[in-house]
């Protein structure tokens, strides 16, 4: 397969700065990597938070983008699970060469999952960050991982293991919330209670939520309603939004001795939890390339393929923005303004002019 020597990349020039498309050399895959032609890349709230505040980022210029779906166009010498022509999806990692707001990415093959024929590139691009974040926070068994250490549903005895145990997901219409709900269902949790706009009730129920509570209720009423539905101690709350308000709500809902999973660490936003009860706060980190996630990540990548193939998990709903990489800023502005609900914005890097 003939490959171009150069490609288009969307750079964030500085913290609080502009995005700019530039032409640079196509990255080369290492022996354990694959090179992907990115057909669809999804936008995440993390992208605008990096642009605005430099969240988790110290060096600029940098490349944003964490979700990609595309085609394998080259494989490293040690890669045997994937081949040129495979349709795949992947989450980006620390290195800019893996970030997805560009036309080609070089990324570790261990964490690249094949797309079933039933899914489009746009649908597959909604999956990587949401699925890896859900899985890492719930199931990673590594003692150093940021996880509840539940038994995965694909492991022996894992499917349905937690039947009868309530769980709460704050932000069920978010991409991460959708993924968490699906895995909680596979693990047997019930009831699965989520907060959302009531207009999205049927939507979040389609992923496995058993109860949908109006997210606009006054705080005290919201807590009371959730606790009444649970009918007993709530040992697991997953905050898929993780702003100050939802973090505090999750802490209030979870029972003493339970676990609250959040996405944004306290040191990153200066939020502080009270110490009024014994709650294990877990800062989920879905990047499979870090040492404590690598073994689980490689295992989970293979299992994700099977779950998708069998229809046991499904993607979110993509909304495609026209204009390739040039449309990213428009999309980030919409996400920041809370003007996206129940969908994941996607761009096609190959359409960039």
TrEMBL record:
Q: Which SMART domains match?
A: PKS_ER (SM00829)
Domain Enoyl reductase (ER), chain residue ranges per copy: 16-346
**GO molecular function ontology, one term from the record:** oxidoreductase activity, acting on NAD(P)H
Q: List, alphabetically, the SUPFAM superfamilies matched.
A: GroES-like (SSF50129), NAD(P)-binding Rossmann-fold domains (SSF51735)
**Which Pfam family, giving just one, matches this sequence?**
ADH_N
Coiled coil (UniProt feature): none
Which protein, by its recorded name, is this? Answer: GroES-like protein
**Lineage of source species:** Eukaryota, Fungi, Dikarya, Basidiomycota, Agaricomycotina
């Amino acid at each position: 397969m003939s490959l171009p020597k150069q490609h288009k990349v969307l750079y964030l020039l500085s913290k609080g700065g502009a995005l700019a498309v530039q032409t640079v050399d196509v990255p080369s895959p290492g022996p354990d990597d694959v090179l992907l032609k990115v057909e669809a890349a999804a936008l995440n709230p993390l992208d605008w938070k990096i642009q605005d505040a430099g969240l988790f980022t110290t060096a600029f210029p940098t490349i944003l983008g964490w979700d990609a779906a595309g085609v394998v166009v080259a494989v490293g010498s040690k890669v045997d699970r994937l081949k040129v022509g495979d349709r795949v999806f992947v989450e980006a990692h620390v290195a800019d060469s893996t970030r997805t707001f560009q036309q080609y990415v070089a990324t570790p093959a261990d964490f690249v999952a094949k797309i079933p024929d039933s899914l489009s590139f746009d649908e597959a691009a909604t999956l990587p960050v949401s699925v890896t974040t859900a899985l890492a926070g719930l199931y990673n068994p590594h003692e150093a991982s940021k996880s509840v250490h539940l038994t995965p549903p694909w492991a022996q005895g894992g499917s349905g293991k937690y039947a009868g145990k309530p769980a709460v997901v704050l932000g069920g219409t978010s991409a991460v919330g959708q993924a968490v709900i699906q895995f909680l269902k596979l693990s047997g949790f019930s009831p699965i209670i989520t907060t959302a706009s009531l207009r999205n009730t049927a939507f979040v129920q389609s992923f496995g939520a058993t109860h949908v509570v109006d997210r606009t209720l006054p705080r005290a009423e919201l807590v009371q309603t959730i606790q009444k539905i649970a009918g007993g101690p709530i040992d697991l709350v997953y905050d898929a939004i993780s702003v100050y308000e939802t973090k505090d709500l999750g802490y209030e809902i979870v029972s003493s001795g339970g676990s609250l999973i959040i996405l944004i660490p306290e040191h990153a936003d200066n939020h502080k939890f009270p110490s009024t009860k014994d709650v294990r706060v877990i800062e989920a980190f879905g990047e499979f390339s870090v040492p404590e996630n690598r073994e689980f990540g490689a295992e989970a990548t293979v299992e994700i393929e099977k779950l998708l193939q069998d229809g046991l998990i499904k993607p979110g709903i993509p909304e495609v923005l026209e204009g390739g990489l040039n449309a990213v800023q428009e999309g980030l502005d919409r996400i920041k303004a809370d003007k996206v609900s129940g969908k994941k914005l996607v761009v096609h890097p190959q359409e960039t002019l």
